[in-house]
Amino acid sequence: MSVFAVSVFVESIGFGVVAAAVLALAAVGFTLQFAVSGVLNLAYGGVMVVAAYTTYVVNRQGIDVWVSALAGIAAGALLSLALNALVYTPFQRRGTSPIGIVIVSLGMTLILVFGTQAAAGPTNVSYSMSQGKTVTAGSIVLTVAQLAIIALSVVVMVGVHVLIRYTRLGKAMRATAANRNLARNCGIRTGRVVALTWAITGALCGLAGVVFAINSGTFGATSTDLFLVLILAAVFLGGPGEPYGAMLGALVIGLATEVSASIVVSDYKDVIAFVILLAMLATRPTGLLGARA
Amino acid sequence: MIRGGFTQGSRRRRPWTLVVALAAAAVLAAGCGSSGGSGGGSGGGGSSAPSGSTLTIADVAPFTGPDAALGPTYLVSCDASVNAINSAGGVLGHKLACKSVDTRGDPADAVPAVRQMYASTSNLALVIGCTSDEAASVVIFTANKTVSFCMTGQSEFDHVKFPYFYRLVPPDLSESYAMIWIAHSLRHYQRIALAFGNDIGSQTFIGPAIAAIKTAGQTLVANETLDLNATTFRTEAAKIVAAHPDVILTEALGPPEAAFLSEVKQLNGGKLPPIIGTSATISPDWFKSVSAAVGASTLASNFLADNLITETSGPAYQAFSKALYAEKGKVGSTGDFSTYLTAPGAVHLYDGINLAALAMIESKSTDPNVFKADIEKIGDGVPGATVVYSFAQGVAALKQGKQIRYEGPGGPTSFDAYHDSAGLFQVDTYSPQGQVKVAANIPTAQLRALGL
Q: Is there a contact between B92 and B370 (Cβ–Cβ < 8 Å)?
């Protein structure tokens, strides 16, 4: 391997960590939603887009993007709450099958994405912000904004860990995820737990949307199309419903896509990521951290 | 399993949920970009429209997906020409109207959209658009039934005879040579990097560009394909920056271009290397998104693009400018509106619509079997023909019994046996405000030396 190739390889590891940080923020929220409510919410990418645009609208008023992100986070939480209360829960109460719910969520994705595109137009937009100075460590070159994204992701992952391990709500979420009827019989108000889960994961989704847009530099209504597939890959690689698995899956997918692009031609980077996923699932169908059957 | 995980209890996710998830995601990935479209008409195929009915011009192009800016650009041009034609009395008692047919920039999605167009649109008089994204699957439908002015430059159409296929833009390989001419003869760059999107339209530039680089004695130092569905391209950008190119030749329409170039700039110590784009990069949307990502003044001082020569003054330009500016405010905020004046799609489709409308009047028929011959006659002209620069002028001359030759803002046309009129190239650049400026003209003889 030439010096040139080694340099690009090391550089790609840094990019992979950034990609993993963004992916982890999204994947953890997605898998928590799935674990607690049983909804495979394919509208997650659509909510991310709405949150990113909400932040854009606030940012255009001259407000710093990191402050504007609060509006995006709030939009993600409110929209997710509304999705659960007004769409998924009514369908579940009517006995719609899980696959039916998946199709409903697919429909919601199209409504959100193309509704946003109709309102905002087909042109992509960018936040008014600086990526900050470039920080170099060996061959790894990252901006201050990218380092902030990594730090933010680490903080959120620690926060999620504390939430699910050490708080009453976290215990209630785990109980609801394990067996909702039993949890309800034990006095847990599962309806409220599910609603709170949607609010928290919606906020995570909103944050992921904003960070995704910051990381991309520019975005449009359809920008999360492929990203949703990567979220699914990370979630199922780690084990569906496993927040720690989603973190690990995000790291593997993020590194795999960037590092593979440095080794082979970039056309194959997503191919390689999904070959890894399929190989993993072939040998361990429940994912890296999923429970063994 | 990590303690505290969510599946450590008795509840297990069934394996089929994975299948459902991946299948749904695949559907989503393939399908996002939907909608749009809307019917066009049954028309075409050799029949005249009922008296007094409205003739429809279908803008068959991407309105969603990565190339979503193309369809609206063509629609602005269509509305401009149609309104000017209607103001001048219409065509044989018919008013004209434009409608959009969204192909999503995907040949597979384009087929049902076009079928729906034919099934639901009455009096379809003309098809415009058909970019390289969807031409492979669309042209076979439209160009056998309806007069179609296409924007595709794909070389597979260079020597194929469709009865109603017309092209006022050059083959993509000509554009590739034009880009290499800019790099070689205008700027004397030696080390060339290519970064093109993975869509059909962008990929067609690569082969001819590599051949022309070899012919010109330059060195290809990097060739990266940019996945238009991805949102970051850092590793691709790192590979290009590490190859130390003198210039990057690129076309990756939509958000990827802005993301890619901003990452190149970041990894290149905050400096954007010289960039040469295709004619498709001359559009308000492209400038708006890329300038927002890398800085308007940075882009203006580091960017050149090949483009077909278009008028920037004179009667044809005046008529086009007047018609186009009448549409200002009716379209969304897309940046500097004046960029449409030099956007290839806007200019050449305006000319195509005027040519077709005048041909209908000349032949006294809306039947494409009848009026298609007059498209070439009016475009190329016959000896002694009166040159007209707008639809209104053409109608007035025809009423006086004169033979006419239409010369619009795209310059004179010269159709070959395959209904192609290639045109001449110029080099464009942007001002920091997004206005397009002509930097140079490209001599046809020198283009030929690169492979034409």
A: no
Q: Do A8 and B13 make contact, defined as CB atoms within 8 angstroms?
A: no
Q: Which residues of chain B have pLDDT under 70?
A: 1-47, 331-335, 448, 451-452
Nearest-CA distance B245 → chain A (Å): 14
Answer yes or no: do B334 and A225 touch at CB < 8 A: no
Does the domain at B55-171+346-406 match CATH 1.20.950.20? Answer given as no
Residues B343 and B337: their CA atoms lie apart, in Å, by 10
The alpha carbon of residue A74 is apart from the nearest alpha carbon of chain B, in Å, by 24
B19 at the A interface (CB within 8 A)?
Answer: no
Taking alpha carbons only, the member of A142, A112, A118 closest to residue A11 is A142
What's domain B172-308+424-449's superfamily in CATH?
Response regulator (3.40.50.2300)
Per DSSP, the three-state class of A28 is helix
Instruction: Fill in the amino acid letter for B238.
Output: A
Please name each of the domains of chain A with its CATH number: 3-283 (1.10.3470)
Chain A residue with CA closest to B225: the answer is: A267
ipTM of predicted assembly, 2 dp: 0.71
Mention every residue, 6+ apart, whose C-beta is less than 8 A from residue A15. Answer: A258, B232, B234, B235, B238
**pLDDT value, residue A2:** 64
Inter-chain CB proximity A122 and B285 less than 8 Å: yes
Task: Tell me if A19 and B232 make a contact (CB, 8 A cut-off).
Answer: yes
Domain boundaries, chain B: 55-171+346-406, 172-308+424-449
In whole angstroms, give the CA distance from residue B41 to residue B146: 10
The residues, any chain, with a CB within 8 Å of residue A8's CB and separated by 6 or more, are A139, A262, B235, B238, B239, B242
Q: Are strands B55-61 and B96-102 parallel, antiparallel or unpaired?
A: parallel
User: Is the Cβ–Cβ distance between B371 and B360 less than 8 Å?
Assistant: yes
DSSP for B162-190, written as a single string: -TTEEE-S--HHHHHHHHHHIIIIIS---
Measured between CA atoms, the residue of chain A closest to residue B283 is A123
CA of A233, closest CA in chain B: separation in Å? 8
**What is the rounded (10 degree) CA torsion for B430, A223, B253, B319?**
-70
A191 within 8 A of A77, measured Cβ to Cβ: no
B210-263 pLDDT, tens per residue?
A: 999 999 999 999 999 998 888 889 889 999 999 999 999 999 877 788 889 999
Stated pTM of the model: 0.70
A167-177 pLDDT tens trace: 999 999 999 98
Q: How far is CA B342 from CA B73, B252, B302, B304, B440, in A?
A: 11, 19, 19, 14, 14
Phi-psi region of A40 (alpha: psi -120 to 50; beta: other; left: phi over 0): beta
